[in-house]
Design goal:
The protein is an alpha+beta fold. Helix content is 23%, strand content 20%. The radius of gyration is 22 Å and the shape is elongated. It starts with 14 loop residues before the first strand and ends in a 32-residue tail after the last helix.
Length: 127
Amino acid sequence: MAASANGVGRYVCQLQRLTLNYCRAGGSSRGLREFIDKSLVDFASKNPQIAVYVRERNGKHPRIVANYLNGNSKIIDIKNEYPQDIQVWLDRLKGESGKKIEKIRKFWHTDHPSIQGTWTPFMNKPL
């Protein structure tokens, strides 16, 4: 039996490209420079589906630019962050879909809301 017979398809990481911008001499980029020296090669080898670019921007604070398959981009300022925190940001960006966060709205509206709350089948069930 094929592995995809259970209804679950292949996972496609939505993160397409990461660009790490840093300043060569800036103090706020110290954590990112350390991450680039010690951990970036390991991250890139574990995630070959993500293109990782390192770009020098002298005189600017460090940031991560994430580009997703749907065309959206996300910019994270990582001024004065430690290398461990940068790893957490990269893992978080890797797991996101790239969609903009929207407020979830209720599909129903009433002019007289109940004080007791919404009815459920378990409301009057004996313990």
